[in-house]
Recover the amino acids of this structure.
């Protein structure tokens, strides 16, 4: 007789389905998928050894079971960390005050415009909910107010801080020349360079947004949640930043005096435009 389907049972099924869905999203297109397939084969062999009464094989697999659990934790440490971070993300964190936010975006866009024109390679990471302290400590501490001139000075070709990433916390450049993890996703195009792979890699491990300027073409790319959008206009890059941090057009203060006309933020809320892409 089948057990009675109660509201608690329904909730239990939905939660388990959600966890399975998150695991599938985690391993899709990654090397972890092959490890899980190998694990499934070992489980299949163990079941077969019981059914076929293969005592030697069953004993070996049963003895190796406890050690396998520790091996999986070591193998999947980055994936486990990414999943926990994914579950703990909040989409409602504001990015400073409205006026502060407008000025921050203006300064970044002005720097991107110059860097793109000069085909100067750059990687700028904007911190959101999940802290990037580990990566900040890998670089050179700046703790300076974010400005176009400071960004251009950091990414000046031949400069001591040119290589590596700049990490921005609200309206402050926390550090420069930071080392970021490269994406190991096999689905990422091999045509992408180190900066683009680093941008994808850091957004796989946290909820930050990474902006890249190609040194070869001067084209702008934006990465978030392990995915990258390439060959963006300045206007599109601005929209991605606003949307990523949960702002609507109507919530962002108008451009400050002296801001370039090519970066206007028009009033008028449009919920569909700013819905999170995920």
């Amino acid at each position: 007789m089948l057990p009675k389907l109660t509201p608690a049972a329904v909730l239990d099924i939905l939660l388990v389905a959600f966890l399975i869905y998150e695991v599938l999203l985690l391993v899709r297109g990654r090397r972890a998928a092959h490890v899980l397939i190998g694990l499934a084969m070992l489980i299949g062999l163990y079941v077969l050894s019981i059914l076929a009464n293969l005592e030697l094989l069953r004993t070996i697999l049963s003895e190796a079971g406890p050690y396998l659990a520790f091996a999986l934790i070591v193998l999947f440490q980055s994936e486990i960390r990414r999943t926990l971070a994914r579950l703990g993300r909040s989409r409602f964190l504001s990015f400073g005050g409205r006026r502060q936010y407008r000025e921050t975006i203006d300064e970044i866009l002005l720097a991107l415009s110059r860097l793109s024109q000069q085909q100067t390679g750059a990687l700028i990471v904007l911190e959101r909910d999940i802290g990037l302290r580990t990566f900040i400590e890998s670089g050179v501490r700046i703790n300076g107010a974010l400005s176009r001139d400071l960004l251009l000075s950091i990414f000046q070709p031949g400069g001591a801080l040119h290589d590596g990433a700049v990490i921005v916390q609200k309206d402050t450049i926390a550090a420069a020349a930071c080392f970021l993890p490269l994406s190991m996703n096999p689905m990422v195009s091999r045509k992408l360079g180190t900066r683009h792979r680093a941008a994808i890699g850091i957004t796989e491990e946290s909820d930050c947004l990474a902006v890249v300027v190609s040194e070869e073409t001067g084209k702008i790319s934006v990465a978030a949640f392990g995915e990258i959008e390439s060959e963006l206009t300045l206007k599109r890059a601005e929209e991605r930043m606003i949307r990523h941090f949960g702002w609507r057009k109507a919530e962002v203060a108008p451009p400050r005096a002296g801001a370039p006309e090519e970066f206007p933020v028009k009033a008028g809320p449009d919920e569909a435009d700013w819905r999170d892409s995920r």
Remarks:
- The chain has a mean pLDDT of 78.
